[in-house]
Amino acid sequence: MNGLAVHELTALVGWAESFLVVEHMGGPAGFVLALEGPGVPYESLNYRWFSSRFDAFLYVDRIVVDADARSSGIGRALYGALAARATGRSPRICAEVNVRPANTASQRLHERFGFRPVGQQDTEGGAKRVELLELLLDEEAGHADGL
Fold first, then answer.
1. Which of 14, 15, 23, 78 makes a 20 to 30 Å CA pair with 36?
2. Which of 43, 123, 57, 52 is nearest to 94 (CA)?
3. Per residue of the chain (147 residues), what is the pLDDT tens digit?
4. Which value, in Å, is the radius of gyration of the alpha carbons in the chain?
């Protein structure tokens, strides 16, 4: 998982507002890990970007789908469950996707789910560039805006 050490994952799970897992064909096929923001002592450049701009949000630090289960709707199901859980508790879900190097599968997932770009920034000393995304939640309808 991008060089994430066990103690780092343990800290993230401890800070998580939501940690949802999807099973497929008898085993785990994906998960989403989201942190409430601002206020978590997380040093992520992207989390800090959102913290400096929004008073309240749910930050998707990780959404992972097993390679064998991609394009099966698991990512969409994870985001649907997260949005349902967050509606009425947070005004928005925030995430980022790599645009350099491009992660086109992640870009498509976020676009199809209704995330909108709110900024970009370089990470890892300029080796990567991310697009920062926001999904506004509609409390009255109980779902994400535009879905």
1. 23
2. 57
3. 456 788 888 888 899 999 999 998 888 999 999 999 999 999 999 999 999 999 999 999 999 999 888 888 899 999 999 999 999 999 999 999 999 999 999 999 999 999 999 999 999 999 999 999 999 998 654 445 444
4. 15
Are 93 and 128 a contacting pair, CB within 8 Å? no
Per this entry, what is the length of the chain? 147
Amino acid sitting at position 42: Y
Assigned CATH for 6-144:
3.40.630.30
